[in-house]
# Entry
Amino acid sequence: MDSTSEEGALAACIAACNECNQICLQSIEHCLSQGGTHAEPGQITMLMTCASVCRTATELMSINSEWHPTVCDLCAQVCDECADQCEELGDMDLCVTACQDCADACREMVGESVDLGEEAEDDEEEEEPDELVTQERLN
# Structure
């Protein structure tokens, strides 16, 4: 993959995570004003969790942290769950769409990061994985 498409995917994922973060935070106010099942603690907690994970993913991608693929994978999972929960509640279409878009962008980002990691591994000499893991645990 060339660096231009990689940078484009990174920018798209950051934008999707930012959008999802904002919409989930805005949706908290919407849910509280709706009352009933929309305002139950589990729903508010889900929206806050989704917003927080999206924000963290954005921050880690922005600084090119080696942890961003791990957090993007988590972000995709949380966004999927949030989208499902909001869809089940109803009257949350904007949040559902933002979460689905973010999950898709994060999955794409994780896939590209794995591809890049595999290319780097192919360039290196192979070591015995069991010995390496054992040595790391002992240190």
In short: Residues 3-138 form a domain with the Substrate Binding Domain Of Dnak; Chain:A; Domain 2 fold (CATH 1.20.1270.360). The helical segments are 3-34, 41-62, 68-89, 93-123, 129-138.
